[in-house]
Amino acid sequence: MLFRTLANRSLFLHALGVLAGLAPMASMAQEAAKPSPRESLRFHASFDDTGDAVVARGDGRIHTTESLARKEWTPGITRKDVVIAKGQGKSGGCLRFGKKSPQVICFRGEAMPYLAENWSGTVSFWMRLDPDKDLQPGHCDPVQITQKAWNDGALWVDFDKDLPRDFRLGVFSDLSFWNPKNVPYDKWPMEKRPMVTVKKPGFSNQAWKHVAFTFQGVNSPDNHPATAALFLDGLPMGSILQPLRFSWDLKQTAIMIGIDYIGDLDELMIFDRALSAKEIATLHKNPAGK
């Protein structure tokens, strides 16, 4: 009986060893099966020579709208304070915002790889500014993507209005989904707000900082928790885990950049899947994604 027990134990330990060896191999196979970041890239505005996207589905032209209401879309950059600063970007040129303005620079939402079910993606870009010194009073959204408003089906990053300014990722589902009773935002419990907040984020007008955020499992048919995560200079800053629901009509959705922003912005990229932490670290090292 002892012999049989030892033999069985030996077989069991051998099996564990085989499985332990297979697990990394399976993980590597799954990783290899993913499309590369280049293959997953669905939008890229390099801002080298023009504001228009160099990669985009649908209309990739940059536009200026009269306000956040976006009732009038004018192709091109019509704000005199917004220019292409050639040779001043993280790679090539960059988009430079000189002052706060009610006009908004944006791209058509059809460039977003949106899905009504099981939607995932990544947004990546670079910024150069000192938010405490360069920005005017009030909130500032370097990037905001929405059909309606900042709290109603919106993805955004912002600098808070209070000094020293926090940097935040907001992933707000449809208002009727995340706040069905329409509780005033200032009375909504801080820990329940769908946001990641970074204290002392370390931005500077002397150096570029890479920003990326991912989202995965949005619009799950069974309302399974989705995930969203924020990265700065390739490092994870925090994440959100909760069901997320976005109901977008892409014809009415906008990719808005530089809302009340003063500083430089470069290499705006949007991917159709959530890049891994390793891939984002690589993107941080390779700004233009070449």
Strand-helix topology:
Layout: H1 2-33, H2 37-40, E1 41-45, E2 55-56, E3 63-65, E4 73-75, E5 82-85, E6 94-97, E7 104-108, E8 119-128, H3 131-134, E9 140-149, E10 152-159, E11 167-172, H4 175-178, E12 195-198, E13 209-218, E14 226-232, E15 235-242, E16 254-259, E17 263-271, H5 277-285
Antiparallel strand pairs: 1-2, 1-17, 3-4, 3-7, 5-6, 6-17, 7-16, 8-13, 8-17, 9-10, 9-16, 10-11, 11-12, 13-14, 14-15
What does this protein structure show overall?
With 290 residues, the chain is an alpha+beta fold. The protein folds into 2 domains: 1-33; 36-285, Jelly Rolls (Sandwich). Helices cover 18% and strands 36% of the residues. The protein has helices spanning 2-33, 37-40, 131-134, 175-178, 277-285; strands spanning 41-45, 55-56, 63-65, 73-75, 82-85, 94-97, 104-108, 119-128, 140-149, 152-159, 167-172, 195-198, 209-218, 226-232, 235-242, 254-259, 263-271. The protein is globular. The termini are far apart. Mean pLDDT is 90; it is low at 1-20 and 25-29.
